[in-house]
Amino acid sequence: MKLFHVIIALALLTCSSAQAAKIAIVIDDIGNHRSHLDAALLPGKVSFAVLPYTPYARSFALRAHHQQKQILLHMPMEAVDNIWSGPGEITSTMSAQQIKLQLTDALESIPYVAGVNNHMGSKLTQLPVPMHAVMEALSSRQLFFLDSRTSEFSVAEDTAKSVGVKSSRRHVFLDNETDKAYLAQQFKTLLRHARKHGSAVGIGHPYPETLDFLKQHLPQLEEQGIELVFASELTVAPNRSMSLLPVTSAK
User: Fold this and answer.
1) Among 99, 111, 150, which residue's Cα sits nearest to residue 31?
2) How many CB atoms lie within 10 A of CB 4?
3) Three-state SS for 65?
4) Is the CA virtual torsion 220, 226, 227, 231 positive or negative?
5) pLDDT by residue (tens digit) across 220-234?
6) DSSP state of 34
7) What does the alpha-carbon distance between residue 64 and residue 214 come to, in Å, rounded to a whole number?
8) Can you state the angle between helices 208-217 and 180-197, rounded to 10 degrees?
9) pTM as predicted
10) Residue 63: HSE in the Cβ half-sphere, 13 Å Cα cutoff
11) Per-residue pLDDT tens over the stretch 181-223
12) Any idea what DSSP says for residue 102?
């Protein structure tokens, strides 16, 4: 009888674990400041999006990899307001070959890259032709794409699926404001979406307030029935559909 109870308990535990909601936390805009290096010490499976050609891009990627974190290339892409998005920017005036060369060069500048997300890009991610070139470059390297969703008209995910690239999207920006009340509100929104849909992706930035908030709250996720996973673990294969959520902010 005792053995029966043990088997039932194990079955319930396995079932509960399998149904745990999952979140991915991605910290964008890494690489411009030495202070960003400390972000690699955040607890758990945090993913980091590193800007190419920035002073601390390579050293951060090396440190984060040593801390068993995941690295994304935070690729500068053209915005609707024509604000320059940074060194290596991909624009709509480039040919497909130029886009692929630009992206390849950026990828090779940062070690241990597992995927790519867009820095800015509210214009480029709306355009099927340049995004097709982006996805072909990622497909050749078997990298995933995370759409930062800086435009509600983004075609990035559909294009990724058409090329055979695994993809996902941002659901919540955590720190458009950095006071504790706002951070707590956005974090709750992220967890609420994860519980409702099974998973959610939140994007933050290496602000001291954001990092302090995450240091405090990430270790508490397990007791709340939430599993922290890398961004790659929430990507969707091209033959599957994923839940859509309105854009909450743009940049």
Assistant:
1) 111
2) 8
3) helix
4) negative
5) 999 999 999 999 999
6) G
7) 16
8) 50
9) 0.89
10) 18
11) 999 999 999 999 999 999 999 999 999 999 999 999 999 999 9
12) H
Strand partners of residue 73: 50, 116
Burial (CB < 10 A; 0-12, 13-18, 19+), residue 245, is: middle
Token reading at 243: 């839940």
Torsion of CA 27, 32, 33, 35, to 10 degrees: 20
Is residue 79 within 8 Å of residue 122, measured between CB atoms? yes
**Distance separating alpha carbons of residues 43 and 205, to the nearest angstrom:** 15
Q: Which amino acid is at 225?
A: G
Place of tokens 């053995």: 3
Dihedral sign, Cα of residue 70, residue 117, residue 34, residue 61: positive
Six token digits for residue 233: 């673990």
Tell me the two tokens of residue 51: 């800007």
Backbone angles phi, psi at 227, to 5 degrees: -105, 130
